[in-house]
Amino acid sequence: MKIKVIVHEAEEGGYWAEVPAIPGCATEGDTMEELRKNLQEAIQGCLSVDVERPKVLSS
């Protein structure tokens, strides 16, 4: 599976990245290699979250 990510250089050094297709999915790393590893973990974590069905409240 291919997922688009946007990589930014951090002001304090290193990099941070966001995954536009998964709101709230972002990570950082001191090197590009570390960033790639962290991105894999972040994406897996975001996609593995169980979401409960919304409960309908009766009025």
Gyration radius from CA atoms, angstroms: 15 Å
Note the main sheet. 3 strands, antiparallel
Shape: elongated
Total number of helices: 1
Secondary structure category:
alpha+beta
Number of domains: 1
What does this structure look like?
This protein has 59 residues and is an alpha+beta fold. It has one domain. Helices cover 27% and strands 20% of the residues. It has 1 helix and 3 strands. A hairpin with a 5-residue loop joins strand 1 (6-9) and strand 2 (15-18). The termini are far apart.
Question: What does the secondary structure layout of this molecule look like, with pairings?
Answer:
Elements: E1 6-9, E2 15-18, E3 26-29, H1 32-47
Antiparallel strand pairs: 1-2, 2-3
Defining key terms:
59 residues; alpha+beta; three-stranded antiparallel beta sheet; 1 helix; 3 strands
